[in-house]
Each structure stands twice: as structure tokens, then as C-alpha cells.
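Progress report, Aim 2. The chain analyzed during this reporting quarter is listed below.
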Amino acid sequence: MLSLDASAVRLGASAENKTDAIRQVGQILIDSGYIEPGYVDSLLAREKVANTFLGNGIAIPHGVPKDRGLIKRTGVAVLQVPDGVDWNPGDRVYLVVGIAAKSDEHLQILTNLTDVLGDPTEAERLAHTHNPVDIERRLSSGAEPTSPTTTKPLPDDLPNHFDIAIDSPHGLHARPATALVDIAKEFDATIRVRHGDRAGDAKSLIALLNLGIGSGATIRVMAEGPDADAALTALREAIEAGLEEEEDAPVAGGEMAPIDWEGRSIAGVAASPGLAAGPAWQYQRGKIVVAATARDPSAELTRLDRAIEGAKRELAELYEEVKSRYGAGKAAIFRAHAEFLEDQGIIEAAKTRIRDASRSAGYAWEQSYGQQAKDLAAQKDALLAARAVDLRDVGRRVLRLLAERIEDAPKLPDTPVILVADDLSPSDTAKLDPALALGICTASGGPTSHTAIIARSLGIPALVGAGDSVLEIADGTDIVLDGNSGTLVLTPTDADRATAERVQADMANQREEERRACYQPAIMTDGARVEVVANIAAPEEAARAVEAGGEGVGLLRTEFLFLGRDQAPTEEEQTDAYTTMVEALNGLPIIIRTLDIGGDKSVPYMSMPVEENPFLGERGIRLCLNRPELFRTQLRAIFRASKKGPVRIMFPMISTLEELKRAKALTEEVRQEIGADPVEIGIMIEVPSAVMMAEELAAEADFFSVGSNDLTQYCLAIDRMHPMLSRQADGLHPAVLRMIDQTVKAAEKAGKWVGVCGGIAGDPRGVVILTGLGVKELSVSIPSIAAVKAQIRGLSMEKANDLAKRALACSNAAAVRRLR
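Predicted C-alpha cells for the chain:
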């Protein structure tokens, strides 16, 4: 049994910041003969990927698994900082417990430590004791005999349970225990874990750590409640899989292992894979315009309250999103941000301006938080001054909800840069030159936004939803953008730059290997085949799709012919464009989607009425059926082009069987007028009603293509362009996956095939899951074709089926993305 040596306890220390504190406790470990000096860097690296703050002023810095070779022997050191040191925003630490774990001998100390976490008085005593023996005895032997016992009477075992051994070489320590807690919280059930004669709440990290579960220990996992069975199944699978024990565990095919960046970073949402390093360029610093005065103070006070509550919801959602993807450490900043919105001083100052000076809510709020941020920035204390950036970020979140308009013309770079913006419109993004736009980082938006979609089509690394603080980055600042993990490194170190160069070189080599093999079919290791085709939106992209290895075109968005002009394209114009693409494909099939106008795409010359809910109004096939001459003209052009090569027609936004039958009847009339041969006719599966009617629709259609972006939007009732909610519009949500599964089964029953042409078709995790669900065609952006084909060639159907099955059983998108 390991005991803490009093010589490894340093009292009365002071630390400038967290890094300084970690270096000090690391030096104690060195002086005590526990570690090599290089392990201190490993302690610091851990802080980039995990939150080591436990609570009650205690933190437990420990290194990353790959550096265990630098540990001479297992040991623990304690640095007492009586005045405290800021650890995370809002978290102050007084006891820094440095751990060098070569085995599981330190677990008893952690168990004793969690007893302290449950006793604020004891934590306060140890934080200010003048005797190192107090800390040595408390952490080595547990509570003093005179202390009241913290062990409560054991609850009766719950009716459903399983017993399992913990195979982790270091037992159920903080990180795997956190993973278990996160899973347990997903279920509506009471869940307990028993170890020996003690039991704890599986949804409490402290309770689990307090059980002192070492390697090889057998535990009983018990559950009771509506989700008890599902919870036990998920927990058993997670424990058997190792509870994410190794940070460098293999990732799903096509995904890169996460990088431990050293410099200060911001966590956003990964939108387009790849890595970029270079100077920042503020593409569009959106100026938020608000009125100075208002006539109705009461209404303005209500507007302010609603905006603050809206910002709180946004921050709560952002915290959960970032935590689920990248860990609590990176997400902690958003909890601290939310605390600013509880500051009654800032709020009351704004309300006073509204009541006493007839100011608008927007103006009053801008003045209030702006003055407070200015005061903070003027502080000599660097930590306090840094909080000004956080306050401005939070302030702008509220201000955007009060804005009358956002103005300032965008600027285009003339040298290679990483673009930083509040958000980019589809037309803005489409104009970018990939040779000059090294990467894209936006403050708002989600992974299915137009920015993300177009960035993927251009092969530009991108992250979105990074928060307004990125708008403070000065032009020319060297940054690193990791589009694989959704991380923006604001202050890259020399090591970070070297890592970026190495990763970029590795990615370039990988892309070159994929390019050389791009014409090979996507045949899995056990012989199953998936066709990989391209999404295109312009005539010249057809040839590019073939050159990239595409086996055809799975989605031609014909809207490009109708947008940005004063009148509808003629039949001749459309025929020429479609024929050019058919001929460029040289015998490969092309799926031409009929006009999908409406929703977020409007055409002035069509005099479309203003709709309160355009995504639920006249769009897609509804518009075409309501304007038959427009529809007929397009169909005539398609059938004329079909004489030059294999063409398939696809109708968008089919929601009822009647719509499909009407569209097919009109199409057949046009075909006979033209005298063309029959073509395959398919439909987009984009709304829940189409999923529920899939069996009936499969009897009428030749194939289905799932538009996962719109299906996600309608399934989850989230506008994928919504500034607050778009981050939640994840196509890998189990609700969406179950709809795709139901669609595939209905199609297979009718002998029809299903493709997917939305964003998840090119997502490395999505590729595996969709293949496992039985999807036969993946239609992706041109730059993604070679990589997707290479990923499929290295995948077995057995593995894909297994991952798909487990994904369907998950309770949210974050759980799906954690699967291995």
C-alpha cells in the first residue's frame, strides 16, 4: 500500500498561475525520485485534454498515458497554496496533488482524497495547516479516528445487476470513472456501483472514486427504473471496452487520433476535416447595431431578460456539446461565462439605463458590459485582465439577440490566411479560393450549416461555433486550426508548430496514397461493395468528380441554374448544362434532383409569397407541382440530356405518397412528349412522414436518397441555421440514425437501394455507421471521395454492422461519437 511521504508535501507555497503550480508540484515529484524531469511536460499536457479539478479547492494533475515510461516509481506529491491559484475559470485550488501513476498503488490516496472532497471543513483545514504530517496522515490513512465516519449504511441491492471485473491497469480512477458517470447520466434510472461492502451513486464522480476500485477488482453494477435494462447493457459494454482508458486508443477508420496542443486553445465544433496553420484574417467583423433609445421601458426590460435567458440556454447547450466531444476541461469556460450572466451589477446597471434614460435594451446592455470589460482590462492582475475577453464574449452573445442589424462589408484576403468570421453566407464561402483560404473558423453556426457544407466541398479545414471571442483575434496573428477535433490554437508553441507541420505532411502523404488509389472500387475486406459518388452543383464539377475517383454523381443540385438571375433559365440553357455534365461523366450515372427552391433559398423573379415558416411551406416538390410549367421545362431538359447517357431523376422533399404519384404522372407525360426512354425515378427522404411511409413510397420509387441534413433538421425540429441551436443538429443523433435504419429496411423489403447524400455521408464515423445500416451509396463532396473510398476498403461489414447496432442503441449524438 502506497503512503504519502511527508517530505513530498510542500506547505505555504504561492503560484502565479496553474502552469506554475503544476511545475512546482512536478519538481517535488522529481526531487522525491518519482519521475524524470520530462514528465512535468506530461502533467501540463494532461491539462489540455482533461479537467483535473475535483472540487473543494483540490486538483490532481497527472500525466498522459504515453509518457508512463518517464515514471521511475509510483508516487504522490502535494503542493499547498494557502492563497489559492486559479485552475479553471471559476475554480480556485489550494491543494495540488501531483500523481505519477506507474501502477494502481495510488488509488487508496485518491479514495482518501474523495473523503476530503465530501468534507469542506476538512478540505479547508488541510489547505491551511502548518504541519505537513496532517496532510500525510489524512491522505495515507484516511479520516482520523476522532473524525465522524463518512460511511453510510448500505442500501439494499437493486433488482437488476451484473458483476464484472475491472481490467484497467489503473483501476477506476478519475478518467474512466468520469466516462462511466457520463454514460450513467444518460439514463432515467437509479444506478449504483458496489465494491466490497461499500456502494456509491454511479452518477456521482466523487461517489465512484470514493469506492477505491483498483485493477482486477470485481464490482456490482445495479440499476432500477424505466431505463434500467438499457443502462446496464450500455454500462457493461462500456466497461468491457475499457471506458476510454487509453487516450491514444484506436479511432474509427478514417478518423485521426486527437492531438494534445500545448498552446491556449478554443474548442469549437468540427465542421470540415484537415489542419491549417497560418495568420488569422478577420473576414467579417460583424458590427452589431442597436437603437440608442426606446419609447417603452417596460418592453425593453422584458427584451433584456429574454435575451439574457436565451444566452444562458446557448451557453448551457454549448457546454454540453463541447464537454461531450472534447471533455469537461475544454467545456469549463462556458460554465464560467454563464456566471457572468448572473452578475446583478451588470444587469442592474443596464436596467437602470433603460428605466432612467429611456435607453433601448441593446444600447443599455452594450454600455453596461462594455464598461465593466474596460475596467477589467485595465487591471494590473493579468488574470483579471484576461477576464475582459470572456466578458466581451458573453456580452456579445446577449447583444446579438438584441441587435437590429449586423453590418460591415466582408473583406477578401489576397494572401493565404485562416479566415475568422462571425459566420459566412453560402455565397461568401463559395467565392473562397482554397489556395488562399487555408482554413475557416466561425463564431456561430453548426456542423450542418452552409459554411460547413461548402467548406467540405472545397476541401478547406473548418470549425464552427467557437464563440465571439475569436472575433477579437488580431489580423496577422499566427494560429493553428484543427478541423478534425474542432480546436483553434490561439498561442501555438514551437512544439505545436512542429506538430502541425508533421501532421500536415502525414495528411498530405495519406491524401496522395488515397489519390493514387482513388479509381479502385470501394470493396470492403469481406467483399461487400459501397458506391461512392459526388455531390455537385455546377457543370465543371462533373469532370472533377470523375478525376477524383467518383463512380458517378449522386446529387446534382440544379438550383445553380435558377439563382442569381432575373428570370428562370430556358429549356435550352438547362439542356446544355445537363448534357455537358452527362457527357463529362462518360457513361457513369448522374442523379439530377429537380428544383429545390424554398426554405432558405428564395428566387425574387418567382414572386414567392412571404411565409412565416418557409421550411414548412412551398418548397421542393410542392413548389414544382404548384408551378407545373416551370417543372415541365426542367423535366424536358433532363429527358433531352438523358439521350446522351445514364440519367436518374430525383424529387426533393417528398412528404406524401400523393405528391410522388402526381410528380411521376407529370414526368411520364413529359417523357412521352420528348420521346425519351424511361429513366429511374427516386425520391429524397428528408422528412419524418417519408420515413414512416417508406414502404408505400418504395413501391412507387426506384431508389431512395436520404438527405441527412434536412432529415436531421425536421427530425429534431432544429433549424440548422439557428444561431443558438444549430450545434445540436447532428446527423449522427440516434433519432436520425433510427429513421435511416427504418428507411433502409423498407427499401430492402421492396428490393430497392438507399443512398445518403447529406453531411454524415462524408463523416468518418458516419461512413462506418451508414455502411453498417445497409446504405449502398454514399454521395459526398468531391475532395472527400478518395478518402471515403479508402476508408471503406479498410473496413469489414462485420465491424460496420457492430458499430451501427451500438449506435442505434445510444441515447444521444455525443454517445454515438464516443463509440469505438
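Residues 143-153, 245-253, 325-330, 381-386 have pLDDT under 50 and may be disordered. The chain is about 40% helix and 15% strand. These observations will guide the mutagenesis work planned for the next reporting period.
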